[in-house]
Amino acid sequence: MAALEPLTEQSVQFMIKSLDRFDSFALMFHDTIIESQNDPLVELCQRLPTLFGRSTSLETQERAIQLLVSYILNPLNSRKVTHRLFHGLLEALRAPECLASGMAVRLVLLALLRMDGAPAKLKGLSAGEFIKPVIGLLDVANTKDILQEVVGKVLAFAKIGKRKHRDDDVVVDQDEMRAFFHAMIDSRPSLVPLVVILKEFVRLLPDKMYYENFTRPFAKFGNQARNVLNVLSIQHQEEYFPVIGYTLVASPSLWSLDKKSLQFLSPLGLSFAAVSEPPLDMIQYLIEQAHSRHTYQAILDITKGQFNNASGGLEDQLVAVMMLHITGSDEAALFPHWVRISSQFVTMGLSLFVSFRSVIEKICSALDKIPIENLAVGRNYLMWCVYQFIAVLPAGRTADFMVCRELFEKLYYDPEPIPIPDFSSSFDIAKLGPAYLWVYMMRRAKQDNVGVACNTPTCLKLLIEYILAAIDRAVSQPGFQSMHLKPEHAAVVNCFVSMPVLKDQVVASKMDYVDKMAYSLIDYTLDNSGGAYSSSQSVGSTLAPGGCSVYNVTKPLQMDWLDGVSIHIRTILANMLSSCFSRVITSFRDVPGSVFLAPAFWETVSRLMLYEESLNVILTLIGMKLPEMAKNNALFLLATNFELLAFRMPYLPINWKGNIVVMAMNMHKEFNNFQPTGSIQALVYMYQVIMRSIQSFNVEDFSTRNSHLSVPALYLPESEEITRLLLLTIFRLTSIVGLDQPMLQFLNNHLASVQEGLPHTWGHQILSTLPENVRTFYGMVPPPAKFDKKSISGLVEEFVRRLRAANTDQEVRRVFETLNGKPVLIYCVIWRQLVLNSESGDLAAANAVPFKGPHYTAVILEKQPLKMQMTALRFLMDYVIADIRQMVTVEQISRQCECLSLMVWKYHILPFDRVLLVTLLRHFGDDNSLVSVLCVHLFCKAPEFLARLAETVNLIPPVYWQAENYFDQVVAYHHKYPEYFQFNGNFDMNNPVAGTPSLLQTRYPLYFSNVILRCVPVFDVMVHRFIELPGCQQQFETVLELCGKIFSFHDRPVTFLWQTFHFYDNLLKDNLAIRRKLMKAVVGFKAEHYPPNFYFTAQYEAYLTATTPDATPSMPIDYFHHLLARLHTCMYSSHNSPPVYHTLDWRFHEYPNATTHALYTGCLELMSIPGGADGTVSGLVGCLSERMTAAAGHGEELAEREKFQQLQRWINSAGLFLSALPARYFRVLLNMLDVALWTPEMSEECDTDIVTILDLQRSLVSQSNSSIAFTCQLIQATILQNTVAHMLLLLGHFHQIIGSVSTLSQILLLLKLITPLLGKLTSDLDRLRAFVTDVLQAVTRVATRQPASTGSDQQIALLSEALFYILDTYPVDQNKELTSPFINGLPDGFHKRLRFLAQANGFKF
After folding, report:
1. C-beta separation of 1179 from 1120 below 8 A
2. Are 231 and 1255 in contact (CB under 8 A)?
3. Which terminus in the chain has less CB density within 10 A, N or C?
4. Closest CA to 681 of 1125, 1004, 328
5. Which residue has the higher pLDDT, 665 or 277?
6. For residues 596 and 552, is the Cβ–Cβ distance under 8 A?
7. Signal peptide position in this chain (predicted)?
8. Following CA atoms 832, 833, 838, 839 in sequence, which dihedral angle do they give, to the nearest 10 degrees?
9. CA nearest 561: which of 496, 477, 611, 491?
């Protein structure tokens, strides 16, 4: 038979026209088609196979198929002709020599799906029979188009079926479409990756119901989908709760929830196909925590101002939290919970994250399930919470508020009136909540002429009468000064301020009352120029530290009072600061001798800052007012505001840390260039704000590489010490967080930018502790020029010689006029005179003059810009260190340091904290580093410093919020040890000599601090320097013993010590003794002011205080049980947490909640116990093993689920501890991974049920080897909570061991472990590419050696899905350099499985 001429586009067009004519002729004969040799249909069908031959281009194929499919789908053509032509097309595609393109197959299949009539009725041909031979020819894009058509048809048929009550034709069509889909997902012929299908379902299926209905007939597909999702996701992540202030939830692929379903998004984005349950308990836990708003916003990906639709899921969980705390009976215990719930409710409502009406309706529905007798206490708190929301939103629609009537109908139908509370505490005020809400609703309805068909509840009669009477009294007597500290006053204030004004009242009267009310609380703390709002009472003044008069009001508004007023009231008070500052600025400008603000004012402001709503308002106002204060020379306000920010910010929210540092640095930069009168004190507290803010930075601040500390404006040449402190903080925290590619790039660019503005380098001891890339960078920086001691010494000696030779005041003045041209030498000249006089014994004489020209010295210092004074101090320390290095005896060194102490403590020329900071951070070179630390050691041993430290410990309480007379104690200290921030020309500033010329210097009151408290952040730097320098342990221990109690005033002792142990782990891991001493000093002295076992567990405290702690080789297993249980109960069962945590007000503490505190303090203990990393990890894993044993075996389904849920939560608790420990602890887990890899189930080539082995719950139920899945899950829990650091360690270990694996099971285990965590490295493409390369090479090597079997088919399928997911999700193979050699190197058994992988990357197979 002669070969047929190949079809072309032109020949197809011609034959279709012939077919049209033939079709018209055929229509004339309804039952028969004339058979003839020239029948165009027969000729076309015979020539169709030539269309898919080698001689036809793909473009020709696609255009010809387009013509044929258009003809087939034309409803005007004969059905018999079109069906016959379609069969011919299918036969051509099924031919062995067919080389059809994916587009051609797609067009044919779409034609089948869109044909009129059931395709399966075509000569009895089933969907699978014609799909199986051609489905593999499709690429990913074409497969998605086919799947979209199938799903669309099924969903359409389902809707039609509902309307037609399951019409038979509709059922048949729907079944055929399902058969078509079944042919697509059949694992043997099609091999379509489930990853492709699941990702397409995200786009095609509306919700979980549609997904379940569509896939229900395909049990095998459902099982396969779950298996794939288990490999690609972290199983049971719903039980892994994040920790506020520690866990970084910014990784969208690891922590993101679907806004509607509140379910973790699967790796494929298909939340309703995820295996895990919605993490409802986790959302409720977050809602209950303070300062959690940024966490749940990140998890739900909602932003204020951008997310304007209420989240039904978030509303449900908010209501669930309310219901959780509405049934309690302990009023005092319930109230703190409702304070936080109210704050969250208001925040969510103002940000439009929830709908008020919807929340109230859901509350009403939830109340139906709770017996009314369980609501006696909680109902009042609920109404108090609702009232606070309404009070903040006075502009809302009245109709929205009226929905609250149903709450009254459900909760308040008691026959007897509820008595008026005695207002003995703040929670008594909340009992007025229902009355507040009722009066507000009724007044609002009357104001807006809204009819309300309901009667006043009988049980609220007395409460409502009290409120109405209080409103009338408030209008006539707005002051209430006599009761301003009583809870009853807070109850009255709530009555009127948040109430709507009726039309028969003068509107101005309410606003006038609001102002008067607010000023009645703070007016007595202002100056006498208050004007109309000034208090009529005469308030006396007292002499504050600094010799300044302040109003004699030292008692601030009590926390009970502030807790009792509504959020609206606290916001009003916070906003009043703006006008207060403006009035005081104006008053001080007009009358400089005005009395300063009272201590009560500043302490009240600090307490308002403990509330999240008012904190943002206050910090914003302070930031706006600082330039106005500087412009009007109101430096006392500037200094006190910075003192407030430095010493009254126990917990600094992450969104404000960078803002405060930048704000202080900008002001610091402005003040460095000139010296207004009295600015030195303001500068001191600017330094404190900067240092303490830097001290507060933790790992959460480096969740992205755009850290608060990377702002270029922070790195000023005139602030070298701050620059070095900022850089050291960045080095320390980025090392803890992990140096992935983006972080390394950020560090390199940032260092280059800083180096350009401020050239600097570091000593060898510091450099040796820094990350490798930082060491490399500074290795290319030329070393600084050495201090020219000889030339500087010559100049100093010449000035000193001339001064000692001067006998008259004029001669001294001429020397100082010359010295004025070299101001940087001023401190050196003074110090050298003191040293010479000390050596000669003149300094000890009764009438000795310590140095010549004190008045001229004071004049020079006063005229110097502040940055010049810092330069002079650096010159002095360089000069002193170089001079001390030449000393040969301890007496000589002590004498040099004593002269420095005189300049600090007696003459007030140098600030002590600045001297310490410069000495610690100055780059003296390796030779002089030990000398500098020795000087610091001697400074700390100075009697003057130790005496002030002892007095501070004796007088000033570290837990300042519990002291009723804190200001009095500060005054008592300063009367004994007054502080002067600048030398005024008198050698004895406390007893000036009559007739001695001295400068009149401005001093401002000190409210919260002294020199000891200002030294706390400097001692942090000192601890790090002692650790870095070898051979200084004796001096280090001496300083800790003498000065350790200074850490009892540390705001963040646990965070500081955790970072220290973590960063310096390599230096401290073999020195358990120094770790114990640091624990005793930094945390132990702080713990003395707290209840027992607040910081330390009982067993650890016994170990720490033991006479011979080194005799303890390891801690008992009970210790690890207790430590894990404490964290577990704080997170999952807070009502069972240690009693000491219940009574603590966390707003004043280092951490915002008990969970974060338990995590960090527990980590400190684990890093300072005997047994090393192996013993610590073994103890934690041993506790989990016992829990795992209890969860194993069969049982009732509900009991099994609860046991396994608890096991997951214990794993999360252990994972949290391990995530917060240094690398050597995580390497123990990697050793456990190695053991799991080489168990017989993994390392032997056998038919292994890999799905069961890798699933912890299945392995426990089947009582098979569960250690493999357990190890995998513990490592995943650890890395999930950790930053990227442990992920980098895991990838490094993977690279080391992947070359030795020998089975596909081992590779699957590693992929199951690592693939769900790859979202942490989305920006680190180099590491991702290296990981993929290692996997591909290992698969190629193992697959060529391992024989195919039934077991390996399952492994190959899962392995192919994981590889497809990785290469499809992450752009690691854009140039096709990995996939092509990988596909070509695999044996035949893998080819069909990875066909789509090859096509997805553009390769023909």
Report:
1. yes
2. no
3. N
4. 1004
5. 665
6. no
7. none
8. 70
9. 491
